[in-house]
Design a protein that fits this description.
There is one protein chain. By secondary structure, this protein is an alpha+beta fold. It has a domain of about 60 residues: Nucleoid-associated protein YbaB-like domain (Ybab, Chain: A), CATH 3.30.1310. Helices cover about 55% and strands about 15% of the residues. Strands 1-2-3 form a three-stranded antiparallel sheet. β2 and β3 form a beta hairpin. α1 runs antiparallel to α2. The longest helix has about 30 residues. It starts with a helix and ends in a 13-residue tail after the last helix.
C-alpha cells in the first residue's frame, strides 16, 4: 500500500510538471531565418506562425525565390522550437525511469 501511495504522489507531481511544461511551451517563441536574415519567421511553442518579416528587396516578379525563403525560415524556426521543447522536457524528466525513445506529446 505504501508503494501505491508513493506512485500516486509521483503521478501527481508529474502531472504538475507537465502542466508547467505546457505553459512554458505555449509562451515560448522562436525565430527562423533564411537568406541571411532577409526572411524571418516567428513561431510559438505550438508551431503556429505568429510573425513574418520580408525584406523589401525580395519583392519582385520572381515569387518562387521568396516562397523558398519563407519555407526555409519556417523550417528553421520549427527545428529550433522542437530543440527547445526537447531540452525542457529532458530537464523536467531528469531522474525518471522512462524507457529509451519515449516521447511525451506536446
Amino acid at each position: 500500500m505504501k508503494d501505491l501511495m508513493g506512485m500516486m504522489k509521483a503521478a501527481q507531481e508529474m502531472k504538475g510538471r507537465m502542466e508547467e511544461f505546457q505553459n512554458k511551451v505555449a509562451e515560448m517563441t522562436v525565430e527562423g531565418r533564411s537568406g541571411g536574415g532577409l526572411v524571418v519567421v516567428t513561431l510559438n511553442g505550438k508551431g503556429e506562425m505568429k510573425g513574418l518579416k520580408i525584406d523589401p528587396s525580395l519583392v519582385s516578379d520572381d515569387v518562387s525565390v521568396l516562397e523558398d525563403l519563407i519555407l526555409a525560415a519556417h523550417n528553421d524556426a520549427k527545428g529550433k522550437a522542437e530543440y527547445e521543447m526537447n531540452a525542457k522536457m529532458q530537464e523536467m524528466t531528469a531522474g525518471l525511469p522512462l524507457p529509451p525513445g519515449m516521447k511525451f506529446p506536446f
